[in-house]
Design goal:
By secondary structure, this protein is mainly beta. It is 0% helix and 36% strand.
Amino acid sequence: VAPVAARPSLLPAGLGGLVRNTRLRRTQLGLVAAGGASPEIAGNEVIDSFGPAILVTGVRSDPHVSDNTLVAPRAAAIVVRDEGAGRFERNRITAGSEPRVWALEHGTSPVFLENTISGGHLIAIAVTEHAGGLFERNDLRGNRGGSWDLDGAGPVELRGNPEDPRPMPLPPEFAGYVN
């Protein structure tokens, strides 16, 4: 694993490339694929980031994100927005207070396969503002706010995602949150 990095890794428009075996700890933002970037992001650790651990934004941004460990980001662990896409496989996402995965805005349509998303204080996955996507065989057990927020979602396919039978009670600091 590479040394700790202090800045986000920005993957700009049109860049393919590979980001592998990097460790980011306590950064403002983790790994970013923006403006049409389609890199492979694999085997990385992002721990205690202040913003998203992985951000995919912009038309034609379509990374392959696999086998990463994302621990306790203070914002959503993975955010896909602004018509971004991406294939997210076998990532481990634990702890934190925002939705662990958040797809938002019309035209956004990621694919999430076989990820483990647990230990969140709120929900596991939010799909809002007419975003869509495919979510298949993701283990969503152990998130206090439940598995899904699909309020205002566009076309979403949910297939075989193990989840808790009902949400667990929220901790006191989230008493006013409505899921």
